[in-house]
UniProtKB/TrEMBL annotation, chain A:
It is a multi-pass membrane protein. One of its GO terms (cellular component) is membrane. GO terms for molecular function: electron transfer activity; heme binding; metal ion binding; oxidoreductase activity. This is Menaquinol-cytochrome C reductase. The chain crosses the membrane at residues 52-75, 108-130. Its main location: membrane. The keyword Iron applies.
From TrEMBL, chain B:
GO terms for molecular function: 2 iron, 2 sulfur cluster binding; metal ion binding; monooxygenase activity; oxidoreductase activity, acting on paired donors, with incorporation or reduction of molecular oxygen. Belongs to the Rieske iron-sulfur protein family. The chain crosses the membrane at residues 24-45. It comes from the Bacteria. Component of the menaquinol:cytochrome c reductase complex. The Rieske protein is a high potential 2Fe-2S protein. This is Menaquinol:cytochrome c reductase iron-sulfur subunit. It comes from Paenibacillus montanisoli. The main subunits of the menaquinol:cytochrome c complex are a Rieske-type iron-sulfur protein (QcrA), a cytochrome b (QcrB) and a cytochrome c (QcrC). Gene3D superfamilies: Rieske [2Fe-2S] iron-sulphur domain, Single helix bin. Residues 62-167 form the Rieske domain.
From TrEMBL, chain C:
Residues 5-223 form the Cytochrome b/b6 N-terminal region profile domain. GO terms for cellular component: plasma membrane. The lineage of its organism: Bacteria, Bacillati, Bacillota, Bacilli, Bacillales. Its cofactor is heme b; heme c. InterPro entries: Cyt_b/b6_N (IPR005797), Cytb/b6-like_sf (IPR027387), Cytochrome_b_N_euk/bac (IPR048259), Di-haem_cyt_TM (IPR016174). It is found in: Cell membrane. Component of the menaquinol:cytochrome c reductase complex. GO terms for biological process: respiratory electron transport chain. It comes from the Bacteria. The chain crosses the membrane at residues 39-67, 96-114, 126-146, 192-214. GO terms for molecular function: electron transfer activity; metal ion binding; oxidoreductase activity. This is Menaquinol:cytochrome c reductase cytochrome b subunit. NCBIfam families: cytb_ExtP, PRK03735.1. Keywords: Cell membrane, Electron transport, Heme, Iron, Membrane, Metal-binding, Transmembrane, Transmembrane helix, Transport.
């Protein structure tokens, strides 16, 4: 191999390393942009300073956002929660909504999940090889620009549709998104703790059912309470279905009679399914469900 | 072999015998590299894809509800199954919508929407249909897909013994042709 | 003193040319927001990198408390957000930063697209940039599951169901992503590994390639 030096070229290394010893030449000058119009300037510190000014503004806005808006956290995942309305993160909404369209769902779902997105993202990935003209100005290459603008408009439109549909679903099912519900509950609890003074971090204790053998327990099965409130009658906090355990602390017997008779929020009225005596019996038992002192 | 004569040749004159010393070394290097890459990654890849290759356990019958409780109107029933999820063994609750058809035969539908896997519910829009909150898929009482969803709702195997309803593994819907 | 240390290192490793190359290269006027305010559109790439650095750092710190296990994941997130000092802010940075990265990257992509900067000889850099885009979306998808709340669980289920509708290999993709037959314990550890090791590893390699190519080719000329 011919990697010996020519004898007249004197390269001096540092010790026995391959690092060249400094010569007296000045700093290396990279090629400038003298062919471009206007004044160019060095990257560090001149230009970077301007970019960091923009960075500072963005960071301040970002920190204000993180401090003012807590990251959402709902309730622990419960695979049996039938009432939960799933929503992907906002930047997937356009794809999520797209899959609801008639010709990409049902028998054509493959077209929706693989076909159209595959072509769209494939075209985006290979854009330089599809749009090979020399022209760079967007208004001089109308087809490319128009395709992109149409794609953008449909993405925005689909995202908005998806969000509106979600809001609509929340409304007709009378649901509050979990992370909001959870924050409200936490605030209430904090307020209560502050009022009662001390205690503060009262650990959540399992409240046992009072009078488990009461004949009213049979009524909860007969009236299909268990269908929503669960076989253990603990409800489903994340769906806004209250637990029966300790419910006597929250409602009086009169309230309970009213709720069972006429319904509340998502709960249907039971006046046709149960007799007045049965409702009374049930409410009496429910009103006894208090936390042990 | 022919390697022998290469020894004496400088690489400039080696072309005639088919493989130069340099080529031979490059191939050997490539081979050794491929062996090292495969030796390293094969165990890892087998490790990563294990879930696909594991044998699936067969289902068992779970006692769910008394047969007399089943009505023509679909009702939601929860039942516990024994589930082994890797290292995590649990007895989660599953949900089935059980109702009787006109002949009085009970059947149980899975609440997983066949469109994209959300959870459906009966009659939430007061039209005697199963409705999915995600993409507005609708199903009849038999689980027949009306809009959006590509397939009818899955069905649980169901048997009635001693006046109790037992549910088995999920299968494709048999009620809708 | 510092200069002495620098000279000592420089003599042995000859590092001056490396950073001088980065520091001294000239930046043309048409991308300089100090000269033309409209040139701020050229900042989106740098801002994307800035937010990415925030994401990597906040993510590293979050793993000090987070446990990728279905029993404890939710509890650990709840704890780090509500009980640890500044936990709300650090998790907030990671959560909102994820959205901001997507926004910035989106704007950066649009800038490159509408200025035609992806054209020859910069085709490869565009392709690498798109791969970075997909990796970021993958990070978003895998990261969404980690708090293990209902939103995370059900969104992931829907996402996996979408992957399952791919013909022929759909079921395998699904089981490979889930690490089993259901979205559960093994899905969470899998997503955690992908979110924390695999995708960031690929991301760093692609970012290095992206920056190397920018430095090598220089910025695209004025329109």
């Amino acid at each position: 191999m011919a990697h010996g030096h020519k004898s007249n070229e004197k390269v001096v290394f540092v010790g026995d390393s391959r690092v060249r010893k400094k010569t007296k030449t000045g700093p290396s000058v990279p090629p400038d942009y003298s062919s471009y119009p206007g004044k160019s300037e060095a990257f560090i510190p001149n230009f970077l300073l301007k970019e960091w000014m923009v960075g500072v503004v963005v960071l301040v806005g970002f920190l204000v956002l993180t401090i003012s808006e807590a990251a959402p956290l709902g309730y622990p995942a419960d695979p049996t929660n039938a009432a939960f309305i799933p929503m992907p993160d906002w930047y997937f909404l356009f794809l999520y909504q797209f899959l609801k369209l008639q010709y990409v769902s049902k028998d054509y779902v493959v077209l929706g999940t693989v076909g159209v997105p595959g072509i769209a993202f494939g075209a985006l990935l290979l854009a330089p090889f599809l749009d090979t003209g020399k022209e760079r100005r967007f208004y001089r290459r109308p087809i490319t620009s128009l395709l992109m603008i149409m794609a953008l408009v449909s993405c925005f439109w689909l995202t908005k549709q998806s969000w509106d549909h979600y809001q609509h679903e929340l409304e007709i099912t009378n649901t509050i998104p979990e992370h909001i519900l959870r924050e409200e509950k936490a605030e209430e609890a904090a307020k209560k703790a502050a009022e009662s003074g001390g205690g503060g971090e009262a650990a959540e204790v399992e409240v046992p059912l009072v009078d488990k053998d009461d004949p009213a327990v049979e009524l909860t099965k007969k009236a299909q309470c268990v269908a929503c409130h669960g076989a253990d009658l603990k409800g489903n906090e994340s769906s806004g279905i209250p637990s029966f355990h300790g419910i006597g602390d929250e409602y009086s017997k009169e309230d309970l009679v009213d709720i069972v008779t006429n319904g509340k929020n998502n709960m249907p009225p039971f006046k046709d399914k149960l007799t007045a005596e049965e409702i009374d019996q049930l409410a009496t038992w429910l009103a006894k469900q208090k936390k042990p002192e | 072999m022919s390697n022998h004569e290469h020894k004496d040749n400088s690489h400039r004159s080696a072309m005639k015998s088919g493989m130069s010393r340099r080529q031979f070394l490059s191939y050997t290097l490539g081979g050794a590299g491929a062996f090292m890459a495969a030796g390293m990654s094969l165990p890892m890849i087998r490790f990563a894809v294990d879930p696909i290759l594991k044998k699936k356990a067969g289902g068992t019958w779970i006692k769910v509800v008394e047969a007399s409780k089943i009505t023509n109107e679909p009702q939601e029933f929860k039942f516990k199954i024994h589930q082994v999820d890797g290292w995590y063994v649990s007895d989660p609750e599953l949900t089935a919508w059980i109702s009787k058809d006109d002949q009085g035969n009970a059947f149980a539908l899975s609440p997983i929407c066949k469109h994209l896997g959300c959870t459906i519910a009966w009659n939430t829009e007061k039209n005697n249909e199963y409705v999915c909150p995600c993409h507005n898929a609708h199903y009849t009482k038999d689980g027949k897909n009306l809009v959006v969803a590509p397939k009818p709702l899955d069905e649980y195997d169901l048997k009635i013994e001693n006046d109790w309803v037992y549910l088995g593994p999920v299968k494709a819907n048999t009620r809708v042709v | 003193m510092l200069k002495g240390v620098y000279n000592w290192i420089d003599e042995r490793l000859d590092i001056t040319p490396m950073w001088r190359d980065v520091a001294d290269h000239e930046v043309p006027e048409h991308v300089n927001p100090a000269h033309h305010f409209s040139a701020f559109v050229y900042c989106f790439g740098g801002l994307t990198f800035f937010i990415t650095v925030i994401q990597i750092l906040s993510g590293m710190f979050l793993t000090m408390y987070f446990v990728p296990d279905i029993i404890n994941a939710y509890k650990s997130v709840d704890y780090l957000q509500h009980k640890v000092a500044f936990g709300g802010i650090v998790r907030g940075m990671h959560h909102w930063g994820a959205s901001l990265v997507i926004v910035m990257m989106f704007l950066h992509t649009l800038r490159v697209f509408f200025t035609g900067s992806y054209k020859a000889p910069r085709e490869m850099n565009w392709v690498v940039g798109m791969l970075i885009f997909f990796i970021m979306l993958g990070l978003g998808f895998t990261g969404y599951l980690l708090p293990w709340d209902n939103k995370a669980y059900f969104a992931t289920k829907v996402g996996i169901q979408i992957a399952e509708s791919v013909p022929y290999i759909g079921t395998y993709i699904k089981e490979l992503m889930q690490g089993g037959e259901i979205v559960g314990a093994e899905t969470l550890t899998r997503f955690f590994a992908i979110h924390v090791f695999f995708l960031p590893g690929a991301l760093l390699a692609l970012l290095a390639a992206h920056f190397f190519m920018i430095r090598k080719q220089g910025i695209s000329g004025p329109l």
